[in-house]
Amino acid sequence: MADGITSASSQVAAISGYTENPGTTNPSDRRYNGLAFYTFATPEHTASADTPTISMFYHNVGIGAYATDIKNVTEGRVQITGFSNGDQLSLRHPSSINLKWGMYVSSIDSSLNFYSNGSLRANIDRVTGVYTALSDRNRKKNIRSLSDVLEAVKQLPVYSYNYLDSKDEDRRMIGLMAQDVQSYFPELVYQRYDREKNNPVLTMDYSGFGVIAIKAIQEQQKIIDDLKNRVELLTKRLDVIEKK
Question: Fewer CB atoms < 10 Å away: N or C end of the chain?
C-alpha cells in the first residue's frame, strides 16, 4: 500500500515503490525497485492497481503515464537517458519502442544531433547554431536527376499574408501557398494532422526551394549561354557580310 494524501475533493496523491518488470527481483534490472508518484480520482484506487503519473528508475524518469491534455496520448512517456559518450533526451511513443525521437549531444564536437528511431536526421552546430539536415550521398538511394523546374517556378505566385490566429497589425509574412506548390513540387509538401483543430493541414519544406532555385538558375544560365553563342555567331556572319 502506498503512503498517500487525500484531498477534500476525494482526490488522492500517493508515493510508492514500483517496478515495471514484476517478473524479476534482480536489483540490476533498471525497471526494478523504482519510485512512483500517483494521482487518483477516488481513494478506492491503490498504487498496485494503477499506472503511475511519474516513475523513477536508476537514472531514468518517466513522466505522464496518463493523458494530461485533450486528445493527449494515453500512457504517453518522456524518457531521459544518458550515455558515457554523450547525453541524450529521447521522446518515445508508448505503443512501440521504435516510435522514438532522440536529441544527442556529441562528445566529439559538442554539436546537437537529432535521431529518429536510431537514424541520424539533422544536426545543430555548437559554434554557429546552424541547423543542417542529413545529405550524405552514402545515406541515399533511388537517386535520379531532377527534370526542368524553371517553367514551374515561373508559375508559382508569391504572396504576403497574416496567419488566421495573428492580429492584423502583426508582422506580415512573405511566402507561398502549399496548395499551389503541391501541383508542381509535391515532394516539398507534407500533409499533417492538427490535433488542436482536429483536421488535416499542409506544411511545406521551404529549405527545399534553395535546391529548386539552384536548378532554375542552372537552366536559366543555359538559356543565357545559348543566346550568347547565337549572338556571337550572328556577329561573325555580319562582319563577313560587311567586309564584302
Answer: C
Q: How far is CA 156 from the centre of its chain?
A: 26
- Name the 3-class secondary structure at 157: coil
Q: What is the dihedral of CA 161, 166, 170, 172, to 10 degrees?
A: -20
Transcribe 101-150 into DSSP letters: EEEEEETTT-PEEEEETTEEEEEE-TTT--EEE---GGG--S--PPPP-H
- Identify the CATH class of 144-244: mainly alpha
In contact, 76 and 94? CB cutoff 8 Å: yes
- 222 DSSP 8-state letter: H
Domain boundaries, the chain: 3-139, 144-244
The most confident of 29-43, 96-110, 168-182, by mean pLDDT: 168-182
Q: What is the distance of C-alpha 146 from the center of its chain?
A: 25
CA distance 84 to 100: 20
**Bridge partner residues of 6 (DSSP):** 12
Pull the grid cell for residue 228. Answer: 550568347
List Cα–Cα distances, 86 to 53, 108, 127, in angstroms: 28, 9, 17
- β strands within the chain, DSSP E: 3-6, 12-18, 34-40, 54-57, 60-63, 77-83, 86-92, 100-106, 112-116, 119-124, 131-133, 159-161, 173-175, 189-194, 199-204
pLDDT digits (tens, 9 = 90+) for 68-126: 333 333 444 555 555 545 566 777 666 666 667 888 888 788 899 998 888 889 999 99
**pLDDT above 60: residue 49:** no
Q: What is the C-alpha separation between 94 and 78, in angstroms, rounded?
A: 9
